[in-house]
Automatic annotation (TrEMBL):
It is found in: Cell membrane. Residues 10-394 form the Major facilitator superfamily (MFS) profile domain. One of its GO terms (molecular function) is transmembrane transporter activity. The chain crosses the membrane at residues 12-37, 49-70, 82-108, 138-161, 168-188, 214-241, 253-273, 285-303, 315-335, 374-397. This is Multidrug transporter. SUPFAM superfamilies: MFS general substrate transporter (SSF103473).
Length: 424
């Protein structure tokens, strides 16, 4: 298979893998508390605590373990880590359906988090093979797989739970992850030479060799903030919608629609804005995306009805669509390929920390101030992130190190060399 078509072949199957992984991971989320309630007799406070712990433990485990898997990815290959993740999730998600009590469920959810990592390794495989001038569009397209799966997952999970019970949803999710394992094994190809453990450069040394290390840390923090911002309304969205609808109407349905609006927009526009970043530079797209997020979150805190909230949530999807591919593209360009596995795994750790810290901050702010206060808190968080990222990106501009400037310099160099070669 030619290299020019190999990355496109991988992109197709890894998109399917990301889609099914996102769907399998999210389809049991809406009823996790209801499932916990069937595993014993609990008071309301106990149920809230156990449900929250069962939800958060997966992300906590993922945040802790991801760097270790990233090291193995750089040593033995990213495809192997995709296989490890999909097979591990096949076993753990299926086992959750057999959980006899809540303690076993929590342990299995923790193990599931330990074995996660399919999506970040899929990103690393594509990033390592895609041409630089097409990385934005390719990684933006790949990101939509997870977005679509995360959107569709809760709908499918709810339908399965209604028809076959809560345990049946876990069994179907496990079967889907088995399909992901088989697709990856037989249809994803990676050219990788194993690296001896002694020759593998320590991560601390990798950061010392980076030309712009603060940029990479800024991207990690941005990933955390994006995820925390998206997840911050998870605990309070239905309560806020109920308040805005004056305790009447289809609260559950409207809450689902409002929650999914940014994801739908991100799905549609992520490849488009990823392609735009290939033409004007991901640094500019990322900066504009952060400013747009702040502009969207501030008016949300003053929303008086669900229509106003829905409009600003829709516009927020453009911000996510701009930032997600830009982050992946920048990491691809400014990190050596031999460290892709670890860097993308670190990024996943920060994303997982955002998944935990976002709902916690949202709940605290809602209790201390108001539901709308959560949006203002998120806008402030995005503002701090922008302040942190600006010096790092300014260093690129000042030193002529932006991706577009480097590409122009390379094109100019080739233009100068061409006549000389022809003359000889």
């Amino acid at each position: 298979m030619k290299k020019s078509s190999s990355w496109q072949h991988n992109l197709y199957f890894l998109w399917v893998g990301n889609f099914m992984t996102g769907m399998g991971f999210s389809m049991t989320m809406p009823f996790i508390s209801l499932y916990v309630a069937t595993l014993g007799h609990f008071t309301t406070s106990q149920l809230n605590l156990l449900s929250g712990f069962a939800f958060a433990i997966t992300f906590l485990a993922k945040a802790i373990v991801s760097p270790y898997w990233g090291k193995l990815a750089d040593q033995y290959g990213r495809k192997l880590m995709c296989l490890r993740a999909s097979l591990g999730m096949t076993i753990t998600i299926t086992a959750c359906g057999f959980a006899p009590n809540v303690a076993i469920l929590i342990v299995l959810r923790a193990i599931q988090g330990c074995f996660s990592g399919y999506i970040n390794n899929a990103n690393a495989i594509v990033a390592a093979s895609v041409p630089v001038d097409r990385s934005g569009k390719a990684l933006g397209t790949l990101a939509t797989g997870n977005v679509v799966g995360t959107l569709v997952g809760p709908l499918l999970g709810g339908a399965l739970a209604s028809s076959f019970g809560y345990r049946g949803s876990f069994f179907v999710a496990g079967a889907m992850m088995l399909v992901v394992f088989l697709l990856t094994m037989f249809f994803v190809h990676e050219e990788f030479t194993p690296v001896d453990k002694v020759q593998l450069q320590p991560m601390k040394q990798v950061f010392h060799t980076l030309k712009y290390p603060m940029l990479i840390w800024g991207l990690f923090v941005t990933t955390l903030v994006i995820q925390a911002a998206n997840m911050s309304i998870t605990p309070i969205i239905s309560l806020l919608i109920k308040q805005l609808m004056h305790h009447g109407g289809q609260v559950a349905m409207v809450s689902g629609i409002i929650s999914s609006l940014p994801g739908v927009v991100t799905l549609i526009f992520s490849p488009i804005l990823g392609s735009l970043s290939d033409h004007i530079g991901p640094e500019k797209v990322l900066g504009v995306g952060l400013v747009a997020a702040i502009v969207c979150f501030v008016p949300m805190s003053f929303a008086q009805n669900v229509w106003q909230l829905g409009i600003w949530r829709t516009l927020l999807g453009f911000s996510d669509a701009a930032m997600l591919p830009a982050i992946q593209t920048l990491m691809t360009h400014y990190v050596p390929k031999e460290a892709f596995g670890r860097v993308f795994s670190y990024n996943q750790s920060f994303q997982a920390m955002g998944s935990v810290s976002g709902p916690m901050l949202g709940s605290l702010v809602a209790n201390a101030f108001s539901y709308q206060g959560v949006f203002m808190m998120t806008a402030i968080l995005e503002g701090f992130n922008l302040v942190f990222l600006v010096p790092a990106t300014w260093a690129l501009v000042k030193n002529g190190g932006t991706i577009r400037e480097q590409q122009r310099a390379e094109q100019a160099k080739q233009g100068q060399l061409a006549p000389k070669t022809a003359h000889n």
